[in-house]
TrEMBL record:
GO annotation, biological process: phosphatidic acid biosynthetic process
UniProt cross-references to Pfam families, sorted A to Z: Acyltransferase
CDD domains cross-referenced by the UniProt entry: LPLAT_AGPAT-like
Entry's transmembrane regions: 20-47
InterPro entries per the UniProt record, alphabetical: Plipid/glycerol_acylTrfase
Molecular function GO labels: 1-acylglycerol-3-phosphate O-acyltransferase activity
Residues in Phospholipid/glycerol acyltransferase domain copies: 94-202
Species, as recorded: Rhodanobacter fulvus Jip2
UniProt pathway annotation: Lipid metabolism
Lineage start: Bacteria, Pseudomonadati, Pseudomonadota, Gammaproteobacteria, Lysobacterales
Listed name of the protein: Acyltransferase family protein
Keywords: Acyltransferase, Membrane, Transferase, Transmembrane, Transmembrane helix
Amino acid sequence: MAVAAHLMHRRRDAWLWRLLATGASFAVFGIGGVILRVLILPMFALLPGGPLARRRRARAAISRAFHLHVQFMYRTRVLDFRIDGAERLGRPGQLVVANHPSLIDVVFLISQMRDTNCVVKASLWSNPCMHGAVRAAQYISNNGSPEMLEQAANVLRGGETLVMFPEGTRTTPGQPPVFHRGAAAIALRGARTITPVFISVAPTTLTKAEPWYHIPWRRVMVHLRVGDDIDPASFDNAPMPIASRRLNQHLHHLFLQGLDAP
């Protein structure tokens, strides 16, 4: 049985090429971040328009850069991908919630939306490749403070789209997602609608337990499926702590079911 399992999962599908192409993908991503910071975003800042116009241009540049990066990974055969329902992303006051199986989830999501905000980990503000982009785009730092929750709710009230990963970190391989209540609390405070995005990555790659050079035995398939909208008003008939707990439980069960769907 062990021999059969080994033969089934032996390296194939141009494994060595995918190792080299994955390393190149990381290099291209880092170089692209530096180019955005030192060249493209400063150039955009010189164009006519106020802070809102500069923010929109920065977000559009990041979205386009992420789109090109997805295409680079696809064209070099690092991965295949499929996105269902992307046309329903990017609406005013929309909170997009997604599970987080891999490091590249945010790249795929933001590549589909020209002007969106995003809650990102606080360490990106000191990352030499990314801090210029996250500052110019005015993304929200996931520092866990009550001020962060109110800031996120405010951007939704102001008509922005906001992307969040309610787990707060990447999913442990083989385990179901565990959602924290922050996304639900933000949704109840400011979202016009909540849109779930179910992300599957098979075989697993770029999880917290897998360094980039642990290349899967076959080419990765990334699938994003946009689910049905959820009206946050249907959960606000109770005090906030109870309402956010109910909404969080609803999202958790929804993703447990949705990730098992084809």
